Amino acid sequence: MFILAPSLINQGNDLLRRHIIQHLQETRKCFGCNLSRVNFSRANLQGIDLRSANLQGAKLKNANLRYANLEWADLREVNLQGADLTGANLKNSLLTNANLQQANLQHSNLQGTDFRNANLSYANLSQTSKNNDIQNRNSVILCKTVMPNGIRTNYCYETSKT
């Protein structure tokens, strides 16, 4: 169970938004809901089902998202720094311009995930499903990142778009 104090919810959110968050707390699922710019930093969201949810610009710093279902989620510009995404389903999600520094994505499903301009510095991607976009096609920041094959990049670089 996670608790969100009213101060964690962005100012200007309406009653409907608060109802969505209350529903999420009770059911641990919210298919396609709008949670953009909500602050879930340090929240325990383990096993939560947020398929197709809009989390654009949300703060999930140091959040527990172990085994969360984020398939088709919009995670553009999200802050996932230090988040635990072990075993999470991120299939076909948008993580463009996301901060994933020091995030643990071990054993996660990254098939079809869009990492354009994402920062994966010091992240752990070991034993994740294959995603060629991480190194081949997108501008991704990899600095001492543990890659899916378990090998850590020994240098810092940004891959270029092709």
Describe the structure using short key phrases.
single chain; 162 residues; Pentapeptide-BTB/POZ_domain; 8% helix; 2 strands; disordered N terminus; Pentapeptide repeat-containing protein; two-stranded antiparallel sheet; Pectate Lyase C-like; 5peptide_repeat
Task: Give the helix/strand layout.
Elements: H1 15-27, E1 141-143, E2 156-158
Antiparallel strand pairs: 1-2
CATH homology superfamily:
E3 ubiquitin-protein ligase SopA
Shape: elongated
User: Hey, roughly how much beta strand do the residues contain?
Assistant: under 5%
Measured between the Cα atoms of the first and last residue, the distance is 43 Å
CATH T-level fold name: Pectate Lyase C-like
The rounded Rg comes to 15 Å
Number of strands: 2
Strand order of the largest sheet: 1-2
| CATH class call | Mainly Beta
Poorly predicted regions are 3-12
Structural class: little secondary structure
Return the CATH architecture.
3 Solenoid
Main sheet properties:
2 strands, antiparallel
Along the chain, the helix and strand elements come as: HEE
